[in-house]
Specification:
Layout (H helix, E strand, L loop, with lengths): L1 H26 L14 H32 L4 H10 L5 H34 L7 H32 L4 H24 L6 E3 L3 H14 L6 E4 L10 E4 L6 E5 H6 L2 H16 L2 H23 L3 H6 L7 H16 L3 H22 L2 H14 L8 H7 L5 H26 L1
Parallel strand pairs: 2-4
Antiparallel strand pairs: 1-2, 3-4
Length: 423
């Protein structure tokens, strides 16, 4: 009953937030917010509203499907039947558990695939964003599957072996293995994993490259280089990011972003990304991940011996693998209630990065760059406040631009005061 209540409450809240988002966007569809009227046309604003609502309507069906899938795997007996099927293969204990977990993940992904396909080839295509071909999709899927098998299989073997052989504190050793694996993936991602899916070429604009390198030197940011990613192969959405750890750090611009922004705007966007570096947001994120995952493994260690945990969730033959799977089903439901905290932390990081960008580049250029990106990516300017509180990793457009405008005014005032003092 507790589990059914949890599933029901989370599903109802998600549907309610979804409906709030649709209603808020539709209510403001006929007028561009005052702060954006000089830069975004009514037609572009309405396109963003319709795009947001189309995604939200699909998400409504996904929410219902997710609830049914969770119930089907658990109380519906799906996981128990899959466990019996794998057990019938007569595999060694550890291999049996690894195969069960991998099959669970594969089947869940296949069942959810129609939503991803509809989003990509119907919604994204309808609004002019999709550039992914069927051939690219198949190639990405096969590479993703191969990568999952190569990376996840040894990690699962290690965790299941520790669970059976490492005694009382297996969960701590398993956490060390899991977190060490996460650090390794973060380190190798820019040079070994990302290039499997996209082409990265060095930035060729020498004047822009020189300006960027000066900004990097001033920030103390050493990296493997400045790269342009062929994001246009899959989508017309634009973005920029830095990734990696240690000497493997990289600055990456989507080619679609470079095509849509002026030089000063690109510098401002880069300064924002450097703000994440200067404020150690990646390291803070890793620390938060370490703490939450450690707590998760400790909770898992307490739950696995509880027979009632399995019986209540439809599993009559408990095993370490089924326990891990059930834990992966329950945890997202519980974490939903703390998701506003993680979203709030992410938005604070964005504000800090914006403030750094305003101090190192032009706040006005960052404002115009963001507005251009909002327009080109059809991002809604009028999200629902509560929906944003739960889901948005970036501040709402109006709040973010208002803060940058305040920073711009302060910079102008300080400059004026300095000039007056000098005079």
């Amino acid at each position: 009953m507790l589990f059914l209540t949890l599933v029901t409450v989370v599903t109802v809240i998600r549907l309610w937030l979804n409906q709030r988002q649709i209603r808020a966007v539709q209510q403001h569809r006929e007028a561009v917010p005052r702060a954006f009227r000089d830069a975004i046309s009514l037609q572009a604003h309405q396109k963003a509203a319709d795009y947001t609502c189309a995604k939200a309507r699909l998400a409504r069906w996904e929410i219902l499907f997710d609830a049914l899938l969770v119930l089907g795997w658990s109380i519906g007996g799906g996981l128990q039947r899959l466990s019996e099927l794998v057990s019938g293969l007569g595999l060694p204990s550890l291999t049996d558990g690894v195969v069960l977990i991998l099959l669970f993940g594969l089947i869940s992904s296949l069942l959810s695939a129609p939503f991803s396909l509809y989003r990509q080839f119907v919604i994204e295509a309808r609004f002019g964003f999709n550039r992914t071909t069927i051939a690219t999709l198949i190639a990405d899927t096969l590479k993703g599957l191969a990568l999952t098998l190569i990376l996840a299989t040894p990690l699962l073997y290690v965790i299941l072996w520790l669970l059976e052989a490492a005694g009382t504190y297996w969960w701590f050793y398993a956490w060390l293995a899991f977190f060490g694996f996460s650090i390794l993936i973060s380190w190798v991602y820019p040079t070994l994993i990302a290039p499997l899916f996209n082409r990265f070429t060095p930035l060729e604009d020498e004047s822009l490259k020189t300006a960027i390198e000066q900004l990097l030197d001033h920030a103390g940011f050493t990296s493997k280089g400045i790269f342009v990613m062929d994001g246009s192969r899959r989508s017309s959405h634009g973005n920029a990011y830095f990734t990696g750890l240690g000497k493997n750090k990289r600055i990456v611009f989507f080619d679609t972003l470079l095509d849509g922004l002026a030089r000063e705007q690109i510098i401002a966007v880069l300064a924002h990304e450097l703000g994440h570096f200067k404020h150690h947001h990646v390291l803070k994120g890793l620390l938060l991940s370490a703490i939450t995952s450690l707590a998760g493994f400790a909770l898992l260690a307490w739950l696995l011996p509880q027979t009632a945990f399995y019986q209540a969730l439809g599993v009559t033959t408990p095993s370490p693998a089924t326990g891990l799977i059930l834990f992966s089903i329950v945890v997202p439901l519980v974490m939903f209630f703390v998701s506003p905290l993680f979203a709030w932390l992410s938005r604070q990081h964005e504000f800090e990065a914006d403030a750094y960008a305003a101090s190192q580049a032009s706040a006005k250029a960052l404002i115009t760059a963001l507005v251009t990106m909002y327009k080109d990516n059809a991002s809604t300017l009028t999200p629902d406040r509560l929906h944003s509180l739960f889901y948005d990793s970036h501040p709402p457009a109006a709040i973010r631009i208002a803060r940058l405008q305040e920073l711009q005014r302060r910079t102008v005032d300080e400059s004026t005061n300095r000039q007056a003092t000098a005079a």
